[in-house]
Structures are given as structure tokens and as C-alpha cells.
Design a protein that fits this description.
This protein has no helices and 9 strands. It is mainly beta. The chain has a single domain, classed as Sandwich (Immunoglobulin-like). The strands form 2 sheets. A 5-stranded mixed sheet has the order 3-9-8-5-6, with no helix packed on it. It has a 4-stranded antiparallel sheet with strand order 2-1-4-7, with no helix packed on it. About 10% of the residues are buried.
Length: about 180
């Protein structure tokens, strides 16, 4: 059964296909969510907009040649419930490689509960029933009560795009004679 060498949550994974190398940008450990003081109960389905990736490296072990595997990733809340359906992807090793990278990307993260969420990675032979959990990444979500006028998420650098009814200003061209 392949061995999990790395399971890391980060903002972005950049892969150089020519050199066959990956770079992890901003390893993530926690986030603070501003909760308006007018909100009595946080919805159980709260997702915050957040770009993140899960980077895994799997190493083929002796006896794995020709076997086909599946990797399952799921997120468990601080209270122990699964926040979303698990994601299952195939894990097949090219014949000339002993390692294989798996990268999952998302643009939202569950944040209904305050505390440690766990992103779990498990593996099984394709068609098997039982999963073998091989790795986990803890991620802390903090809730901060704020006045209702405060943005829920701190704004990221934005640019104001022209609306459909407005036209960008055009420079009048003049010729010199």
C-alpha cells in the first residue's frame, strides 16, 4: 500500500512540469472569521470564501506495482461531523515513478464551528470496502464577534471594474500638423 509522505494545507501549489517540482505557497494553520454581533446563531452550513489547496505526496512501496488505488479526502468539524461529502480520486503511479503528487483545490472552507477542523486523507485499493487513514492536517477556525458594519472577511486588494452601463473614459486622439 502506498505511503503518505506529505499532507499539507496551503494557499496555492505551483507545479513546474519541466523540472517536476512543486512549490507550496503560504502554509495555512488558522483563520479568523468576523461574526456580526447581530447574528444570534451561526448557520451550520457556513462557508467562508478562502482559496486553499491540499498537497499530498504518495510513495509507492514494494509490491504496489500494477495496483490501482483511491485516495479519499474529507473535512471533519471540531464536533466530529463531516462537513461535506468526501472527495475520492484515483491514485495510479506511472511505471517510471515511485512517487505521485495529489493536489486538491477549493475556494471555500467550512467555518460554522470554532475550533480545530481536520482534513483527513485515506487510501484503499480500488474496489476495496475499507479505507486506511494515512494523514491529517489540523486547521483552526476562530470566531471574532464584531459590529455588524465590519466585513465578515477582510477585503483583499480589489479593483473596481466598470459596470455594464458605464464606459471607460477614452482619450481623444489628435494629430499634430
Amino acid at each position: 500500500m502506498p505511503k503518505l509522505l506529505a499532507c499539507v494545507m496551503c494557499e496555492k501549489v505551483i507545479t513546474d512540469r519541466l523540472e517536476d517540482l512543486s512549490s507550496l505557497i503560504t502554509v495555512l494553520e488558522s483563520v479568523t472569521v468576523n461574526v456580526p454581533d447581530t447574528l444570534d446563531k451561526i448557520p451550520d452550513t457556513l462557508l467562508i470564501p478562502m482559496r486553499w489547496a491540499l498537497f499530498m505526496i504518495w510513495m509507492r512501496e514494494k509490491g504496489d506495482a500494477g495496483e490501482h488505488h483511491e485516495v479519499m479526502v474529507h473535512i471533519v468539524s471540531p464536533s466530529g461531523r463531516e462537513t461535506h461529502p468526501a472527495i475520492i480520486v484515483p491514485l495510479d503511479f506511472p511505471s517510471n515513478k515511485s512517487g505521485q503528487r495529489v493536489v486538491g483545490r477549493s475556494r471555500a472552507f467550512p467555518a460554522a464551528e470554532q475550533g480545530f477542523y481536520t482534513i483527513r486523507a485515506a487510501i484503499r485499493e480500488k474496489g476495496a470496502i475499507n479505507w486506511d487513514e494515512r494523514g491529517a492536517w489540523p486547521f483552526f477556525v476562530a470566531h471574532k464577534r464584531v459590529e455588524a458594519t465590519t466585513p465578515l472577511i477582510a477585503p483583499v486588494a480589489t479593483s473596481q471594474a466598470p459596470s455594464a452601463s458605464s464606459q471607460p473614459a477614452r482619450r481623444k486622439q489628435t494629430r499634430k500638423r
